[in-house]
Amino acid sequence: MPTTRFERFQPLAGALAGLLLIAGLALTWGDPSSETARDETFSYWAENRGQHQISGLLLAPLIAFLLVFFGTGLRRHLRDRDREAGHGSVAFGGSILAAATFALVGMLEGAATNAAHEGERQATYTLSQLHSYDWLAWNAAFAAVLLATGLGARRTGVLPTPLAWATIVIGASLLTPLGFFGFFLLPLWLIVVGVLLARR
């Protein structure tokens, strides 16, 4: 049965999400951490309202939207004809969690910038604290996506062996203190895997 355009778009959605994630990271580089002083945190959100509205109200929802399609594509490509081992289902579930996290991050960024614009210092600080821990959900979600994809690819051969092993290593790193570095490899992984699967 020939592949439809809708099916071809699914893995490409991952590549597009990777490109948008790079843009989002560039826009929001230097976000205040959980240890940043209250006044400094308020000043940051007040002074950087424009870039966070782009990141939170435009890029984050688009990434969330695209990850749903990408997860669907992963599930389809990881399906084993002999026996359903569940790799694709785990990857899809992780993609849904990642999408929900991006939607939540967009809400937090929009709310924090609006609170700062209205002069609400305590609300801004509270929202910023929540925003500074969004990596917990991101790491858990993408660890599931990458580990399931890497292990599934080793079983089905859907990805080249070196890339499958790299996927497993990056996914495992997200569950360790090295997850910070693994997260910054995610955009490249999304682009490479999305393009490779789209070409199959």
Instruction: Please mark out the parts with pLDDT under 50 across 5 or more consecutive residues, or reply none.
Output: none
Note the run of SSEs as H and E: HHHHHHHH
* Percent strand: under 5%
Largest beta sheet, briefly?
A: none
Key attributes of the depicted protein:
single chain; 200 residues
Written description of the protein model:
The protein has 200 residues and is mostly helical. It is built from eight helices and no strands. The relative contact order is 0.16. The model has no long low-confidence stretch (mean pLDDT 91).
Helices, strands, pairings?
Elements: H1 5-27, H2 38-47, H3 49-77, H4 87-117, H5 121-132, H6 135-156, H7 161-173, H8 179-199
Précis, in short:
Helices cover 80% and strands 0% of the residues. By secondary structure, it is mostly helical.
